[in-house]
Design the sequence.
C-alpha cells in the first residue's frame, strides 16, 4: 500500500485530529518514519489512541505496520513530496536543461572505451540481422533510433519493445545476427532474460546500459553509460542525450567501416528525398 497516496485520497474526510497527523507526515516525513507512537502523538497534539485509529483507517492493523508502509512510501517518493525544484524562471530552466545535457555528453566522452567501441562496430558492421531491443519510455525510443541510424547504411535491422517478442526473436536469431539492447537503468529483467536466451544460442549481444546491472551482466559486450541525474524530478532525464550520442558514434564508425556499401545506400535514400520532396541535397537525410 502507498500510504501517501491513501492519505491524498482520504484527506477531505479526515477529522481535525487526523488532519494534524497527516500534515505532520507530509511536513516532517523523516521524523514520522522514526518516531514512536507517543512521540508522533505529542508532535501532532493528539492522543496515542487517535494515532492508532488513524493507522487502522489507512488499512494498517498496528502502528508498527503503519511505520513499515510509511517508510516504504517515503523511500521511493521522498523527492516528490517537496516543491524545492518546482520554482524557477524560464531562463533558469533553459540553463539547467542545457547544462545537464552538456554534462551528460561530457561524462560520456570522458568514459568512452575505444576498444569496446571497435568490438561493437566489428559485430554490427558484419551482422546478418540486427535486433534493437528496448522497452519503456526512453529505451524503446533508443531502440527505434538504432534502427533509424543503421538501416540507411545498408544493414538489415529491426526494433522491438515488446518483452515477449524480444524473447522470441532472441530464440529465433541466427548465427551472425546481433542483438543491441538499450536500458537506461539496466534493471529491465525481461530484457536481461532475452539476452540470456540469445546467449544460449551463441548470438552476439551488445548492451548500451549502466554497468554492473542485470542487463549488463547478461550481455556479451557492454557499452557503458552511467550518468547521474540529480534530484530534480520535474526535469526529463539527461541520460538519453548520452545514449543518442553513443548511437551516433556507433553508427558513424559502422558507416566508415562499411565504406562504399554505406555510401551507396545513403545515396539511394537521398536521391528519392530530393526527387520527391527536397529542392536539393542539403537537407538532413529524412525528417
Sequence:
Amino acid at each position: 500500500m502507498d500510504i501517501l497516496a491513501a492519505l491524498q485520497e482520504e484527506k477531505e474526510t479526515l477529522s481535525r485530529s487526523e488532519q494534524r497527523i497527516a500534515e505532520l507526515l507530509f511536513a516532517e516525513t523523516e521524523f514520522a518514519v522514526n518516531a514512536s507512537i507517543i512521540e508522533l502523538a505529542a508532535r501532532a497534539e493528539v492522543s496515542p489512541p487517535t494515532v492508532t485509529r488513524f493507522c487502522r483507517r489507512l488499512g494498517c492493523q498496528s502502528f508498527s505496520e503503519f511505520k513499515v508502509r510509511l517508510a516504504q512510501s517515503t523511500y521511493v517518493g521522498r523527492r516528490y513530496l517537496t516543491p524545492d525544484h518546482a520554482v524557477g524562471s524560464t531562463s533558469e530552466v533553459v540553463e539547467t536543461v542545457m547544462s545537464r545535457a552538456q554534462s551528460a555528453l561530457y561524462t560520456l566522452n570522458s568514459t568512452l572505451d575505444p576498444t569496446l567501441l571497435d568490438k561493437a562496430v566489428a559485430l554490427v558492421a558484419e551482422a546478418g540481422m540486427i535486433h534493437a531491443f528496448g522497452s519503456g519510455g526512453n529505451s524503446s525510443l533508443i531502440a527505434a533510433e538504432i534502427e533509424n541510424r543503421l538501416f540507411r547504411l545498408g544493414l538489415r535491422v529491426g526494433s522491438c519493445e515488446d518483452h515477449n517478442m524480444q524473447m522470441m526473436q532472441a530464440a529465433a536469431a541466427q548465427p551472425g545476427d546481433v542483438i543491441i539492447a538499450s536500458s537506461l537503468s539496466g534493471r529491465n529483467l525481461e530484457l536481461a532474460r532475452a539476452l540470456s536466451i540469445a546467449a544460449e544460442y551463441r548470438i552476439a549481444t551488445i548492451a548500451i546500459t549502466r554497468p554492473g546491472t542485470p542487463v549488463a551482466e547478461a550481455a556479451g559486450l557492454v557499452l557503458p553509460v552511467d550518468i547521474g541525474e540529480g534530484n530534480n524530478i520535474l526535469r526529463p532525464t539527461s541520460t538519453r542525450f548520452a545514449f543518442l550520442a553513443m548511437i551516433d558514434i556507433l553508427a558513424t564508425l559502422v558507416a566508415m567501416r562499411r565504406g562504399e556499401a554505406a555510401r551507396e545506400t545513403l545515396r539511394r535514400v537521398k536521391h528519392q528525398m530530393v526527387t520527391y520532396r527536397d529542392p536539393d541535397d542539403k537537407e538532413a537525410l529524412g525528417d
